[in-house]
Amino acid sequence: MEQPDAATLTAIGIGTAFGVLALLLGSALLIRLVSWAVRKYTRAEDAEADAPEEAERTDPEMRNRARAAAIAVAALIESRPHLDIHRESDQIRR
Question: How many CB atoms are located within 10 Å of the residue 77 CB?
């Protein structure tokens, strides 16, 4: 039995890679369209339910609390180096 030609194997590999890429692209677009359609049909029913949630997103007090929490976590990580994941990975590399 004879070995397949290298060019043939390369062409099969490249064709398979592009085929899988096209399949993933198509499935992502299909999922996006289905999600858009579901959201379009359920939006009218949930319009009243989304109103309080929308107010929470734009509430300045909630934004300030979130900012304060982020600052507190950053300060805690700076004060205790063993909590920082990136520093541990840098020490392992050295």
Answer: 15
Identify whether the C-beta of residue 77 lies closer than 8 Å to the C-beta of residue 83: yes
d(CA 48, CA 73): 35
Q: Which two tokens stand for residue 34?
A: 């289905």
The model's pLDDT over 48-84, given as tens digits with 9 standing for 90+, comes to 555 555 555 678 888 899 999 999 999 988 888 787 7
Look up the pTM and report it. 0.42
pLDDT of 56: 55
Residue with tokens 């009218």: 44
Q: What is the DSSP letter of 82?
A: G
Q: Map residue 59 onto helix, strand or coil.
A: coil
Helices (H), the chain: 6-43, 47-58, 60-79, 85-93
Rounded CA Rg of the chain:
26
